[in-house]
Specification:
Blueprint (H helix, E strand, L loop, with lengths): L1 H26 L3 H4 L9 E2 L2 E2 L24 E5 L5 E3 L1 H5 L4 E8 L5 E10 H8 L7 E6 L4 E5 H6 L3 E6 L2 E2 L9 E3 L12 E7 L20
Parallel strand pairs: 3-12
Antiparallel strand pairs: 1-2, 3-4, 5-6, 6-9, 7-8, 7-12, 9-10, 9-11
């Protein structure tokens, strides 16, 4: 009798464990993911579940950067009519665009996030674009650089985001600004952006591109 009771208890425990795992898979959210959501973060948009705006791990070149926007300026330089410095609030005063876009990391993970920010083209226009410009180089506070063709940015209306899932962009994702490089791999999504440089150097290679990564970074 005791042996039958022990077998019954073991089987019941197994079913409870399996049931719990199945519920987690049905919900599509692991505890690790659940714990990365911030309080009041939007979790669903247009019928689709959103991922936490903080990625599963930090893969930046010098760790997460903490930027104080009190002393911050966004420089727009290079092939422009007049180089300018924009305060954080100056960028926020431009028209706001909202996009649900998935970030795909070369490490194999992805995150679908609701981004809000300003059109990069609007930012360029504040300084005036030289007709010779065909490339945009992004510089981060940590020394990171990458580039995108100007045509790609304009034609696809790419944005410089300052909010994610309804909240201020977290430092882990690049506060104050991240380039939302839609349809490009994650290393084109420059974070902690401090300078936007318009250039005619179409073959410019950034940090990872100089280390063998594709300059196109297409998905």
């Amino acid at each position: 009798m005791k042996r039958k009771m022990l077998v019954f208890i073991l089987m019941l425990s197994f079913l409870l464990i399996v049931g719990g795992c199945s519920q987690e898979e049905t919900d599509g959210v692991s505890m690790a993911t659940e714990n990365r959501y911030r309080e009041s973060e939007i979790r669903e948009y247009e019928g689709a579940r959103l991922d936490p705006a903080i990625g599963p791990r930090d893969n930046s070149i010098k760790g997460v950067q903490l930027v104080d926007t009190e002393d911050y300026t966004l420089k727009v330089t290079g092939l422009v009519d007049e180089p300018i410095d924009l305060a954080y609030e100056d960028v926020l005063e431009l028209d706001t665009y909202r996009r649900k876009i998935t970030l795909y990391c070369v490490e194999g993970w992805d995150a679908t996030i609701l981004w809000e920010g300003s059109l990069l083209e609007d930012i360029f226009n504040t300084a005036g674009m030289d007709p010779k410009a065909d490339t945009v180089i992004f510089h981060g506070v940590d020394g990171y650089t990458t580039s995108l063709p100007l045509e790609t940015i304009v034609n696809n209306q790419l944005i410089l985001a300052y909010r994610s899932n309804g909240l201020e962009l977290p430092p882990e994702m690049g506060y104050p600004f991240i380039v939302v490089a839609e349809d490009k791999l994650g290393y084109k999504w420059a974070r902690w952006v401090t300078e936007i440089q318009l250039s005619d150097e179409s073959d410019y290679e950034g940090y990872w591109e100089r280390r063998g990564y594709s300059n196109e970074a297409d998905l």
